[in-house]
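Researcher: Please generate the 3D structure of the following complex. Treat every line as part of one assembly.
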Amino acid sequence: MALLEVTNLGISFGGLQAVSGLDLSIEPRRLYGLIGPNGAGKTTVFNMLTGMYAPGEGTIRLDGVDITGKNPAFICKEGIARTFQNIRLFQDMSVLDNVKVGMHNRVEYNMWHGIFRDRTYREKEAQMEERSMELLRVFGIDQRAQLKASQLPYGEQRKLEICRALASEPKLLLLDEPAAGMNPNETMELRETVRKVRDDFGIAILLIEHDMKFVMGICEELTVLEYGRAIAHGDPETVCNDPRVITAYLGGDDD
Amino acid sequence: MEKKGKMKKTTKTTLTTFGFVAVFWAVIEILTVSGHLSSKLNGLLIPVCAYMIMAISLNLVVGFLGELSLGHAAFMSAGAFAGIFFYTTAGAELPVYVSVPVSFLIGGLAAGILGVIVGVPVLRLSGDYLAIVTLASGEILKNVLCALYIGKDSEGIHMSLKDQFSLGMAPDGKMLMKGAMGITGIKKFANFSVGVVLIVITLIFVLNLMNSRAGRAITAIRDDEIAARAAGLDLTRYKMIAFVSAAVFAGFAGVLYALNYSALVADKFDYNLSINVLVMVVLGGMGNILGGMIAAIILTILPELLRGFSQYRMFIYSIVLIVMMLFNQAPAFVSWRQRLMARIRPKAAGKQDGKEEQ
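Model: Done. Output below.
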């Protein structure tokens, strides 16, 4: 059974049908790409998958659980985590605390434990600290743990965002244009990182990307969106040669 | 290494903050014992403590949660009236060591309830709504309290929002609350040590909260609401925790403040007071608890010290405000201050660095 099962997903804002009739099926441990021109509705799909928007129609099932229209906290606990197109870190918090916030629903204790600093507090905090440092080490930014998130260079901010998402122990990780604004070197490094995340953590990754080369080099399965509809689906090779995809990306005659 | 460095950093802030309170307490005690404290300053001690608690608690909302509250005085007022109402009625027959703590609890509870009432509808929204609603609720509470008459006679408790005579009390009746005159004839209970203990309790609560899971959630919401939602945080819940905790401590501050006087009037807790507390927080640096406390002390004592300047008082007060702001924030001042510190205590600075490295 597929990890993520999306059927006939649709949403409209006023008169604009942003996404309609979208089907997605993502297997565990799959590197899946969602591509398409600007305004095709890719980020809208992410927002529906993470509960930021409630879909107008269709269903989303994660690992057999219906998460359609559930709130983001519920979906996060069920196992979807995401990053954002324009990095959204907790800028004034330390790198370490950013990751700890990601762990919010995995290591829990109520506020009174924190206020009285009892044993539960100390144990859970130690546990969080250890796991956060482990995660940071995977991405090679553990030396920066005490810096403010805003003090990191761009590439490391991207890594930290992925780190924070992974801290919630997701089954499916959504990456929204992870290579945006990166130079070729950073992009290459990112490709390795994404693959490493998939292999080390054994999770499925769904990523949105503009950079076709990046997508082709890394994704095992693709869906192409245009005007909110899926126009092609398959392995990168097939999709790349699909005439509709070429038209969508390069423009074509309206016949 | 990393871990130790971090522990030291937060512990250092905590220690400095508590150390400051200890020094503040010691200095005042020494001055009192040696008889160097003027009666004018002596009368200001409890208000200073109350304002310090107000500044610390408002910092939770403004500094850490990042929401603007323009009605912190309302919670102080709710706490003061609820606590003092108990203190002058049921508490009057109890010994002081029972009635005072219970008054504090009742005051904190009342302010907390008001916090929930204001917070539940508003904190679901994001944006400037909280500022508007807190501003309005502060004025509403003040006006209602100003018009509230409560009396007690052999038949029980009478209440009216009109005037004293519409209470229709029996001749043996006693007024408990006289509208704009408020509650009078309070048996004063002014104890500086109680104020300091309350400050310490507030500090323990706020500092420990901010260094825990709930506190991180609160700062995360301030930094990026969308990312916080995506990370699975329940925004309303954590906003409520910050807002209601701040209200409860403002309630404590209100009781402390009111116990210092023989009469309590609602007019005292107006818009100006809310803004004053906000100025303390902003001046001390948002999210900087120690700074807020220092600003609270200066801004409470300063207007009294400036009384000698009669009509130039507010003029000088505002100049001092501007200078303090520049001193804290302006880049040129900040670098000048750092150079000065380096020249004054090069050894101390070096020692501290050495300590951190170990």
